[in-house]
Design a protein that fits this description.
By secondary structure, the chain is an alpha/beta fold. It has a six-stranded parallel β-sheet with strand order 2-1-3-4-5-6, with helices on both faces. Helix 1 links the parallel strand 1 and strand 2. The longest helix is centred in the last third of the chain and has 19 residues. The radius of gyration is 17 Å and the shape is globular. The chain starts with a strand and ends with a helix. Keywords: DNA-binding, Transcription, Transcription regulation. GO terms for molecular function: DNA binding.
Length: about 210
């Protein structure tokens, strides 16, 4: 079963390339190319993923209520406020424009199955100003008050990169059941109810906490 995708084409050469890559991918079916995000509601098809360079919290909420679709945002600039606002609104993937085709497809697949996928530039945007500390103020990080082992942080970091438990097991030279156990422990410690919740924790906690605990 392929992932149905709608592309909101802004007319740029970048999005011409995006459309070509998606149409050539066997795991993706492009069901529409539209000029505006709001036009998706009139399409008559329920795409699983919408690829766009436009983010608006209200539009995301409206589209999700109508189609249960999720957004993949490709942005020419990565702004920490936009990335965080997008994740809070339910956007599942946030990429910078210069990603390669393989990364784009991994992000589409991850978003299609309900996971979160951020490229390195978007993940870096979630890190605070290195000149600020973990206290209050503009540079404050909302790190959950939990203690994770080094291996649990490794698993979280790889979840944030979009890897499956099987792929994580191979990367860390562990069995899949062991990775499942680590992921289960993290869910218990953080209150994440499922894999999607675990991925959100990886974005809000593991990426930031890893930078300060490594």
């Amino acid at each position: 079963m392929t992932i149905t995708v709608v592309v909101v084409d802004d007319g740029s050469l970048t999005f011409r390339g995006v459309i070509d890559v998606l149409r050539a991918a066997p795991e993706v079916t492009v069901v529409g190319v539209l000029p505006y995000l709001e036009s998706v509601a009139e399409l008559g098809v329920a795409p699983r993923v919408i690829v766009t360079n436009t983010f608006c919290a209200k539009s995301v909420a409206d589209l999700q209520s109508l189609h249960h679709s999720t957004l993949l945002v490709m942005s020419p600039t990565i702004d920490v406020g936009q990335v965080r606002a997008a994740l809070r609104a339910g956007v599942r993937a946030y990429l910078d424009w210069d990603v390669d085709p393989a990364t784009l497809l991994r992000a589409v697949v991850a978003a299609g199955r309900g996971d979160v996928y951020l490229t390195m530039a978007a993940r870096d945007a979630l890190l605070p100003d290195p000149g600020r500390c973990l206290g209050g103020g503009p540079g404050r990080i909302d790190v959950p008050p939990v203690s994770l082992t080094a291996r649990e942080r490794d698993v979280l970091r790889l979840v944030a990169e979009g890897l499956t438990h099987k792929q994580i097991a191979s990367r860390l030279s562990l069995s899949k059941s062991t990775v499942d156990t680590y992921a289960h422990r993290v869910r218990q410690k953080t209150g994440a109810a499922n894999k999607a919740g675990l991925t959100r924790v990886a974005m809000s906690f593991a990426v930031e906490a890893e930078a300060y605990s490594s």
